[in-house]
Amino acid sequence: MSSQSGATKAVILARGLGTRMKKADPKASIDSSQSAAADAGVKGMIPVGRPFLDFLLSALADAGFRQVCLVIGPEHTHVRDHYGSRNRPQRIDLAFAIQQEPLGTADAVLAAESFADGEAFAVTNSDNYYPIAALEQLRLAPAPAIVAFDRDTLISSGNVEPERAGRFGALDIDEEGRLLRILARPDAAMTARSGQVYASMNCWLFTSEIFDACRAVPMSARGERELPQAVQLAIDRGAHFHAVRVAAPVLDLSSRADIAGVASRLREVKVAL
Q: For 23, phi and psi rounded to 5 degrees?
């Protein structure tokens, strides 16, 4: 891999328990197949015209990624089966990594260490549809990096309401475009520097140094190794994360109430696996 061609590998974190998605919502407009997939908690496999993951895989391929690893649990055999011979993507080489226990996003990244094999690699959620242009900018950015999404645009143009946007964390970025901190909410010093609030949608470009941080980060109060805390540890140890600032919407598939709207927004999106 050369610096001119950019990264070619991406990791999709698909091991989550889907706690919000499993929660019943009588007001959600979903069909029986969507309800069954929501009950299983694997949000990437929820049908929105076709499995949601298809859209993300196609977007990564459009952005120039050529190798993708899905991090799943040992019980997610249906995901492997779906992307077997009949549905195997043609534009990317698809691999799988097993996260044995749901011990957080940093632990999930560790599951893909052999896939990364010392190269730079992107990391995304399995329940977000990112703009292709943002993914391409990330792929070509100097590693390590993060896509910093303008929070106002997420709210005005995506399907993210203000209350939910507050869960994504605020990115403290210095004058040189480097990530300093990931905060629960913006503070005065941060807003004074940037004048805008940028959010993390867990869209990263890492080097192999992240694995040491993922191993070293302590367990959170939830009993998980959290990726934002691992990134902060890496920054504290001297890593310089470049912030790719983007004003574009992201589709977030967190709960049953999101399914109908996401399906509608994706209806005209062309997918080529």
A: -65, 130
